[in-house]
Structures are given as C-alpha cells and as structure tokens.
Amino acid sequence: MKLNIAYPTTGCQKVFEIDDDKKLRIFYEKRMAQEVEADALGDEWKGYVLRITGGNDKQGFPMKQGVLTNGRVRLLLSKGHSCYRSRRDGERKRKSVRGCIVDANLSALALIIVKKGEQEIPGLTDTTVPRRLGPKRASKIRKLFNLTKNDDVRKYVIRRKLPEKEGKFTSMTCSNCIFVKFISGDLILNILRFHAQFWMM
C-alpha cells in the first residue's frame, strides 16, 4: 500500500511504499479523520501521530466521508458532494465510492502529520516549501503584515517573477500576483465616482 503523508507545517508531502501487512495493521478498521500512532511503521516514526484524510482502492475509487462501510457502494451524488463535480445545474449522478473505513483492499492512503515525533524524516519534516501565493483577501493581508485600515494593501501584495520564455524578447520583466479582493470602501467609492462621470455624459 502507498502512504501519501503530508506535513502542513512545512508544506511537504512524500509517498512511502509499505508492503508489510503487520505495519499496515494499525490503520485497518479505522475511519477517515481518526488519529493513529505511527510507532509501528518503524523507529524513525516513533512519537508521530497521523490523521487519515482519504484514500483510493485498487480500481481507483475514492473514499467518501460518512459512508460507514469498508466496501464499495453506489450513491446518488449532486452538487456540493465530495467525489463528484456536476457539469450542469441540478445534475445528479450515481457514482461508485468506497466507504470511509480502511481495509486491505486500498492501494493508497492519504495521511497528515498531526504531531511530530523525535526524529526528522528526510524530505518531509526537514525541508520547507515556501507558499507560491500570499493571501487574497485584503483583511488577511492586513493581519499578516499588521497593517491598519488606512494603510494601502496593494504595496504588500506578494509578487512572483515569471521565467523568461526562450526566443521571446521582452523589454520588461514579467511577474505574477493575485487580484486583491475587498481593498477598501473609500477606494471602491472613488472608482465608482470616476466611472459615474462618464455615465452622466
């Protein structure tokens, strides 16, 4: 079974291939969102606590939270349900999903580290992956940089330089940034007043 383990603190994730059923037995008969002590996986996992977040069986069907079985069922799913993306308004479809209880028929199990143990795990807890984009909402940017409501949020938007394409000459460096939502009420009013001048003509 493949164990896809993520560590949200560093932003890293790594896949471990474990074939020994004795080591995997700690996950059997456990539900999604339950926490499991990972001491049985090996000495390097001593003290670690993992939470089960999902998984797939050998045919690729995903686990669904709330389905209290370890087998496969066919459910009528609509918009808003997990394991289904509706193509039209009001569309419903009967889909095969796996229950939320872990058993030996799974091919991959998704886990996150809730509590870190004594030792570092290479590629998972020893390295940090920086976030690609900063927060989008203006209030979250203010909270991140300790700004007041009067400060201009647009100066603090995190920009990311894009790599130059081969064979394309550009005079300016390209960068990518997010569109800030809800900048401030005064700025929106100024924009509306500016556009209102043209509407009145």
Automatic annotation (TrEMBL):
UniProtKB keywords:
Ribonucleoprotein, Ribosomal protein
Coiled-coil regions, chain positions: none
PROSITE patterns named among the record's database cross-references: RIBOSOMAL_S6E
* Cited InterPro entries: Ribosomal_eS6 (IPR001377), Ribosomal_eS6-like (IPR014401), Ribosomal_eS6_CS (IPR018282)
Under the GO molecular function aspect, what terms does this record hold? structural constituent of ribosome
| One biological process term in Gene Ontology | translation
Task: Spell out the Pfam families in the cross-references.
Answer: Ribosomal_S6e
Q: Which SMART domains would you find in this protein's record?
A: Ribosomal_S6e
**Single GO cellular component annotation?**
ribosome
**Family statement drawn from the similarity comment of this UniProt entry:** Belongs to the eukaryotic ribosomal protein eS6 family.
* Protein name as annotated: Small ribosomal subunit protein eS6
Q: Where does this protein come from, organism-wise?
A: Loa loa
